[in-house]
Amino acid sequence: MILMWDIKNIDKISVYRTFFFHCGPINDIQLIPNTNKVGLKENEEVNDFPNLTKFVTCSSDRTIRFWHLVDPTLSK
Predict the structure, then answer these.
(1) CA 6, CA 14: separation in Å to the nearest integer?
(2) What does the pLDDT profile of the chain (76 residues) look like in tens digits?
(3) Which of 4, 61, 66, 72 could form a disulfide with 16 if both were Cys (CB 3.0 to 4.6 A apart)?
(4) Measured between alpha carbons, how far is 56 from 68 in angstroms, rounded to an integer?
(5) Which neighbouring-strand residues pair with 2?
(6) Is the pTM of this model over 0.70?
């Protein structure tokens, strides 16, 4: 189970979203940096930190899950 916490208001911390896709404990989580560099000029760097929305989890239920979270409040 993965819980995403809303910590905008420190006095009212709550669970924002819950994901129940593993049947066993999660043993590891690895972030996958976004590599979308379309439209960048030569020698331009991408600050991937705000865009880390992809990750992989592995579990004792012998499964690996790939995740890609999209914030519905962000405009395109």
Answers:
(1) 5
(2) 678 888 989 899 998 887 767 788 889 999 887 665 555 555 555 554 456 678 899 999 999 988 887 765 655 5
(3) 4
(4) 9
(5) 19
(6) no
Sign of CA dihedral 48, 39, 68, 66: negative
Q: Coil, strand, or helix at residue 76?
A: coil
Widest distance between CA atoms in the chain: 45
Contacts of 52 (CB under 8 A, 6+ apart): 31, 32, 33, 34
